[in-house]
Design goal:
With about 400 residues, this protein is of the alpha+beta class. The protein has 12 helices and 21 strands. Strand 15 (about 220) and strand 16 form a beta hairpin. The structure holds flavin-adenine dinucleotide.
């Protein structure tokens, strides 16, 4: 392989998960190259919630102070019933004894990936290469050979290990032929963002609100720049109609009593999936983040669980790279993160979706009664807060041998 550039770890994708993974490795002195197909880190409105344990992890790589400075602190979140007006509030301050960050931080995810990608420039052992698209790769017993499309040609790189942080459509997962089991929701979701201050119209609004309704449920999320309103759409309608003024006016008319005066910055349609890769590892290649699992956004678990993958994988991979542990460590990464994706993230997001869809049926009445009981009962409420803040998922993962 003389003449071919080498590194210890190649990471595909400079999203939040790839940049966190790269920073962990770079800070440990590992030689790492990040390949990103786009010209820069994406600046779209996707994840906006950082849960307490994620803030604690990100503190280890020095980025939490920036998130605290740029984001909004949200100790309280609401489950609301649109028809009755009932509000059930949960306050993370109650779990201050287990975390130094008893709140969610509401901050656009691109602050994380852009901040980390810029900081990686300062490491001599790390590089982020934009406009570098992984085309294909082949692994053998000692490493992985990559073919990468650049603006001017095809580059070759040999890495000891390859980490796929290349998102939902992961080319790495596809080349490995790993099944991505699960389902796609029939309805698409429409995400509208506006600078209109919704709290002026809806009293007692939290920064994070899940509004249950059988006809049109809503997620109302505040980030520093805008309010984001997420609604399900009618599968029979086309893109133009769904993004139209008429549609936007109707949504805000029903929400705050006026629609035409509301200006929107984004009107984004997207499909939502519940899928988990059959394996998070094949030999010297590991999947992290959206390349390994997808879930609906109710609870804000997608990016957070990807960051948790990165920290877990770092703990397993670093000793392997140092020759202090064998490949069994990588198999443990696969078991811990894959099993917890099924037992926690998938299960909880499906439950959150069932609750928000509401309905007049007895199943919804039972779910509502359970939520009210959790609110009233100190022990149940604490367990619920720790579950929704993802502490429980981390405890579950570390218990898997
Ligand atoms: C509307 C919406 C709201 C969301 N809200 C939340 C929330 O509140 N909380 C939460 O935790 N999660 C949320 N999520 C999910 C969250 O955005 C994702 O889980 C997160 O972006 C996953 O990060 P990632 O780094 O794994 O993948 P991505 O962010 O998708 O990054 C993948 C990167 O890989 C690059 N890439 C792809 N293929 C190649 C290739 N062949 N070569 C080189 N580069 C490549 C892409 O260009 C991209 O930059 C939301 C998602 C959506 C759509």
């Amino acid at each position: 392989m003389s003449g071919v550039e080498r590194c210890q770890v190649a990471i595909v994708g400079a999203g939040p998960v790839g940049t966190v993974m790269a920073t962990l490795l770079a800070q440990a002195g590992i030689d790492v190259v990040v390949l990103e197909a786009a010209e820069d880190c994406a600046q779209d409105l996707r994840a906006s919630t950082f849960h307490p344990p994620t803030l604690e992890m990100l503190d280890q790589i020095g980025i939490t102070p920036m998130l605290l400075e740029r984001g909004l602190k949200a100790p309280v979140y609401h489950w609301r019933d649109r028809t009755t007006g009932e509000v059930i509030d949960f306050d993370l301050t109650e779990v201050s004894d287990v975390t130094r960050y008893p709140f969610r931080i509401q901050c656009e995810q691109y602050h994380l990936s852009r901040g980390l990608a810029a900081a990686l420039d300062h490491y001599t052992n790390a590089q982020v290469r934009f406009s570098h698209r992984l085309l294909t790769f082949q692994q053998d017993d000692h490493g992985v050979d990559l073919a990468i499309e650049t603006l001017t040609g095809i580059d070759r790189l040999r890495a000891d290990y390859l980490i796929a942080a290349d998102g939902a459509n992961s080319i790495v997962r596809k080349w490995l032929g790993i099944e991505f089991d699960g389902f796609t929701y029939a309805e698409r979701f429409l995400c509208l963002s506006t600078e209109t201050e919704l709290a002026d119209h809806l009293p007692n609004l939290a920064y994070v609100n899940y509004v249950s309704d059988p006809k049109e449920w809503l997620v109302l999320l505040r980030v520093p720049s805008v309010w984001r309103v997420l609604v399900p759409t009618d599968a029979a309608l086309g893109d133009d109609e769904l993004r139209s003024e008429r549609m936007k006016n109707g949504i805000f008319e029903r929400l705050i009593g006026e629609g035409s005066s509301v200006q929107t910055q984004h009107r984004t349609l997207y499909r939502v999936h519940q899928r988990v890769a059959k394996s998070f590892r094949e030999g010297r290649v590991m999947l992290v983040g959206d390349s390994a699992h997808l879930n609906n956004p109710l609870g804000g678990f997608g990016m957070n669980s990807g960051v948790h993958d990165a920290f877990n994988l770092f703990d397993k991979l670093e000793p392997v790279l140092r020759g202090r542990a064998g490949e069994g460590n990588l198999a443990l990464y696969d078991r811990q993160r894959r099993e917890v994706t099924h037992s926690f993230t998938q299960m909880q997001t499906k439950e959150n979706m069932a609750f928000i869809k509401g309905g007049q049926d007895s199943a919804h009445a039972a779910r509502r009664a359970k939520m009210q009981e959790m609110k009233q009962n100190d022990g149940l409420r604490r367990a619920y807060l720790l579950r929704q803040a993802m502490f429980e998922s981390l405890a579950q993962a570390s218990a898997i041998a």
